[in-house]
Queue: 4 jobs
Job 1
Amino acid sequence: MAMAKLLRHIDISAYGSELMVPGDLNADGRLELIFMQGPGMLAADIFKPGASGSYGALYTTAEDQALDCLTAIDADGNVLWQQGRPWAMDIPYRQHGGAWMMIAEDIDGDGKSELVRIRGNQLQVLDPASGRTLRSATLDSDGYSSLHTARFSHDGTRHVVVKPCSDGLTGHPYCCPLVAFDSTLRQVWAPRDFPNAGHTPLAFDVDGDGIDEFLVGPHCVNADGSIRWSLPLDKTHDDRRYVMDIDGDGRFEQVLAFEAEGLVVSDLQGHILWRRAADHCGGANIGKFLADVPGLQIFANNENWRVNGKDKVASYLLDCQGKTLWESEYDRYATTIDWPTQHGPQAMLAAPHDPTVTDQRPFVMDGMQQTLARFDIPQTLKKHTDFKLPHNRPCWGDWGDHYSSEVCDLDGSGAKIILWTRKDLWIFDAKPPR
């Protein structure tokens, strides 16, 4: 078995977190890495110790709730700045969700990225050079845990849209409401609901006028927050979303992993083109995995295959028209990478999506499910059962007991594969080993 080429290892145990965002903080063309230690979406009052409600007491501890530390490093591991105190207890802190609670983007059009994040009921814009708060807005709830940006004007700035990542706020449906702010954090949308909203909204200019529409749930939303069109999808919500030209006809399609609605492909005028049924389609990625198959291919999974036994297929590969190319009993998530194989120009950085699998390490897989390369990193990590924790709601993944991954070009020399835990970060070459 080939081993991917290790370029660098960095000890991040002093500040590590699964919540890491890469961003060019000083406009030098190289990416820095920003780690955020904290409870993630559990920072809300409803998760505090002693809180009444459906989540129960001790879902987090007071120490979990108080943790708020940002650390920026360069790709060599040098700490550039740190705001807050990192975790120092012998037991792991609890962090749930929060993957979209911080972004590094140029929202004010000055050519440099800002850090934008949610902490409690505060929406904040931070100075990328120091982590200092430049401006903030008070949200109407501390339950918002997901933020996204969109070009809702022609002035070169980006708006910020915030929403809950999962459970809706009191009186609102799942993942609702949505609120939009301009780059100065002036509110431009009052809180509004979009039924069947999910986890992966996406800004995209569907009509070519230079202003983004906002694709959320089954809806296409105009820049003013009004609905342009909606797909007839009313079972649950989206877990993944892409907009790409998957069939090579010069027009973009929308690909949705829409849980009980299955994998759904639509045009950008509000019409479903085809779908693949599933109990719970929770993941998808798209690439040119098979050179002899027209268009792009879609790898997707069916998360509930083990739970209800209705569908023994855990993952599958489809062509651009929905034809099944193969099916598998293994549940995996994957990210497309440019890694030439004997079958096509791209491969997948895949990882098990099953806590019963002993080896949770990511691996490189081709379009015919063959493992091409593995990574020389520890096979197992400590689990929550290895600690005496003061929590009564243990949940797989909340304690740093899994691998995080990112594929990005750190310095303009080509894509790299970044794998990390709360203690270690590894940078690998995203090319087949010689």
Job 2
Amino acid sequence: MKISLTQKYNVPGPRYTSYPTVPYWNEADFTLEKWTASFQKSFSESNTQNGISLYIHLPFCESMCTFCGCNKRITKNHSVEEIYIDALLKEWSLYCKLLPEKPLVKEIHLGGGTPTFFSVANLENLISGIFKLADKAKNYEFSFEGHPNNTTYEQLKKLYDLGFRRVSFGVQDYAEKVQKAIHRIQPFHNVAKVTFWAKEIGYKSIGHDIIFGLPFQTVENIVDTIEKTNSLKPDRLAFYSYAHVPWIKGNGQRGFNEENLPKDAEKRMLYETGKILLSTNGYHEVGMDHFAQSSDSLFQAAHAKKLHRNFMGYSASKTQLMIGLGVSSISDSWYSFAQNTKNLEEYYQILQSNQLPVVKGHILNDEDLIIRKHILNLTCELETSWSNESLYFKELPEVLLALKEIENDELIIIKGNKIKITEAGRPFVRNICMAFDLHLKRKSPETNLFSMTV
């Protein structure tokens, strides 16, 4: 019996927001001193030319969504806001003290958790506090994630006044049965309300996040969700596969049984149905899991081959240095990664001793930097090349041999010194990247580490 491509390639694999992926970081060779030197080097190379990016993790949520794999703290006690904002600004000041000049901030992304858990006053205190020690770069792009159930007009207006022009709202799915399973009851009316508010205020890019592969989800659910989404005309969409990783997130992802999840061909049909509907409604596929209208900066960046990808996801502009502030945040200097402690109490404690709350990281060697570039090319441009000698590496013949079957399945075209992903290969970009992942090749996981690729 012939198996489908989905069955063949649906294996556990990384999402490639970084290379090396976090489980393969060499923590033994990492020190805070090495990280400090690395981000100072990157800052001196890039600040004046492009500016830097800030990812700010706001971890608090009022309730647990069982599909979520993010680092969060569930509480209805809003007195935690001021303490956390003070800690973020303390961490930012520690970074700024290590810099030779005032940073130019090109990008800010507020992620979570639930950024709109925070009051208007505290959001303003955070952003104004950042710019007491920094300036805005030219053509800056500030964005945040909003929960449709608790985002207020006042929050949207204040963040707009502070320079934010992009907002994304988590939709997931509109079916009541699916919403109950993932503990995210969110009526269409709430999403429509905040979307219209954002348009009225003047946001240039409004995004919706939709997930396929959720428990009890059917093709009819996907059709209904995308039809409702299309009626609101967001500028861009994240349409991505549910990452089922209960071994990492514990009971937070055990609000339903395994048999309730659509699998293999059934799950793939959810994606293909959604993709056709989005294309019909004027959305263009961008990189992996993303769709955008031609007027949106994400599509324009992809069309101009200027798309970038990091721990914040896809970005229309590239900065070499990204500093992550907040509990569990990851920073990226291009030459190294550094992650803050995931424990909120430890985060506060380390900052009280005037230390950066970094607890682990990875210093990229020459090989890592080459492979990282190839994986970025594949995930952003759907092609890569080694015509430039600097992108050749000695294991390349082995990688090409590993890709032979993927080539035979017409998911890629290998011609001369170039690989190009075909339209049929788009759902399998992660599998193609895995062939380049030398850390994964040298040491296969002995336990569950990654969600399924398809």
Job 3
Amino acid sequence: MSCLGCEKATKKGLKLTTKQLQEFYPGDISKVNHIEIRSGSTGELKTFTNKQQLQDWLSGVRNLEFKPDPNQEKRVGYLFFVDFFEGNDKKLRLTPGDVEGNYYIYNKDLEKQIRNLFESK
């Protein structure tokens, strides 16, 4: 029996694999100089620029794993999204269940880390 379409592909046609957060980052994640977090429930946007705070937070999330969600059907809404910047260049956007528009099993540890940072300010 053939199962065409059983492997889920990214928007760019590549097969999704399990990766750590830092593997999604194009370059050296330690060069992030600010992070923006938007709350999906309130719309509030917070920007974090404190170098020590950023490095501490990145140390806690960089090795979190993202496992591909077999269901890649489009979704709407988010609890939080995070944008990573170097200078004025946005390098990466993610949520606890989405990296650059590809869906992963919801990562509750990442949600907790995002919430802690968001509520720290």
Job 4
Amino acid sequence: MRVSVVIPALNEEGTVAHVVRAARASCADEVIVVDSDSTDATSSNAAAAGATVLNWRGIAPEIPVQPGKGEALWRGVRAAKGDIVVFLDADVTTVEPGWVDGLVGGFVDKHVHLVKASYTRALNGAPSGGGRVTELTAKPLLRLLFPHLPELDQPLAGEYAIRRSTALEVPFVAGYGVEAGLLIDVASLHGPSSLTQVDLGQKAHRNRPLSELTEMSETVARTILSRAGVLDVPQRQPWTELR
């Protein structure tokens, strides 16, 4: 079983190299950084740390890029060669090689298609208190609208793994709604038992101000509501439908 690590990155020159080095010290067969037109040293720092750096415009170049994290992940899946794709955020300062190994270990169960990270969330130096969008937006809406889903500790975690064959079958929502969309769509395709989680300890990363979290919360809410049939959301078609 081959493993690809895909790291979406936009102007994360201070942290991306650490994430790449941790991924390369794991069971990964390849480490890809999908650079979304960074204007700093993100690309060169990632390459120096040993990653294969791909500009998102160079993956399926016949398709013009759209803004957002979901776009980078969608293109990263296309570029990956592994049977399992592990996603890691580029701004995490606490990532360790064991994160990749732990996420991949969840696939020992052949019925599992998506493995999410579970961890405590640091906030501005405090050991807990992070994950404000998760606790105030995602979890309540998921409990109310999709009560059959397992209650995952971090449904919006940027660290997770998915079977590539499954990732090619599902749409990728634009922007920060991508994780919520994948969670619901994979469960819809393969059943709630296809989702699981592994404990990775504590996560620390660049905490965003409330002004930025407002837009993120709306995007996540819109994604969950779209899966409940309430409204539409911009998204990329599954790659299997584009071939």
